[in-house]
Amino acid sequence: MMKFLKISSLVLFLGFFAALESHAQEVGLRFGNVNGNNVALDAVFALGEFSRVHGDLSFGGGGAGIDLLWNPIYRPISDSEFNYYLGFGPSLFLGDPFKLGAAGEIGAEYEFPDFPLIVGLDWRPYFILIENTTFDAGGFGLNIRWRLN
C-alpha cells in the first residue's frame, strides 16, 4: 500500500507540475531549507491578478522534493516594487524517509522595474503527515527568479 501511495503521489505531483510548467511566468532558484533540501528549481504561475501557484522541485539532502503552493494573497506593498504573499499547499519528498504533508508560505519579494529579475525572502513551515508526523518551522529561503513576460 505504501509503495502505491508513493508512486501515485509522484505521478500526481509531476503531472501537475509539468502542466503548469508550460505556462510559467517566472523561473529561477530557491536557496535555503526546501522540504529538507537546500536548493530548488523555483517557478511561479499566475492564476489571476492577485493569485498564483508557487512550485518548487528541490534537490540535495538524500532525495527530491516537490512543493506546489497556492498563494491566494499576493499584493503590492504600498506604491513600491515590493510584493508580499501568503499561501499553502501539498509537499512531497521522495527519499529516505518518504514525506507527504502540507506547507505554508509567507514572504516578500522585490520586482526590479527595468530588469526582468525578482528577488524574494520567505518562510515555509512544513507539517509532515506521512511517513512520520512532524512539524518543521525552519523553512527559510531566498528566491531569485527571471520574469518571462
Structure description:
This is Outer membrane insertion C-signal. Keywords: Signal. Residues 1-24 form the signal peptide. It comes from Algoriphagus ornithinivorans. It is elongated and about 45 Å long. The chain has one helix and ten strands; from the N terminus they run H-E-E-E-E-E-E-E-E-E-E. The chain has an eight-stranded antiparallel β-barrel. 13% of the residues lie in helices and 63% in strands. It has 149 residues and is mainly beta. The chain has one domain (2-147): Porin (Beta Barrel).
Element layout with pairings:
Blueprint: H1 2-21, E1 26-34, E2 37-48, E3 51-59, E4 63-76, E5 82-95, E6 99-111, E7 117-123, E8 126-130, E9 134-136, E10 140-147
Antiparallel strand pairs: 1-2, 1-10, 2-3, 3-4, 4-5, 5-6, 6-7, 6-8, 7-10, 8-9
Strand content: over 45%
Summed up, the helix count is 1
* CATH architecture type: Beta Barrel
**What spatial order of strands do you see in the largest sheet?**
1-2-3-4-5-6-7-10
Biggest beta sheet attributes: 8 strands, antiparallel, barrel
Envelope shape? elongated
Radius of gyration: 15 Å
- The fold-level CATH name is Porin
Task: Tell me how many strands there are.
Answer: 10
Helix content: 10-25%
Mean residue pLDDT: 85
- Quick one: CATH class? Mainly Beta
Structural class: mainly beta
- Give, in order, the helices and strands: HEEEEEEEEEE
Q: What is the quaternary state of this protein?
A: single chain
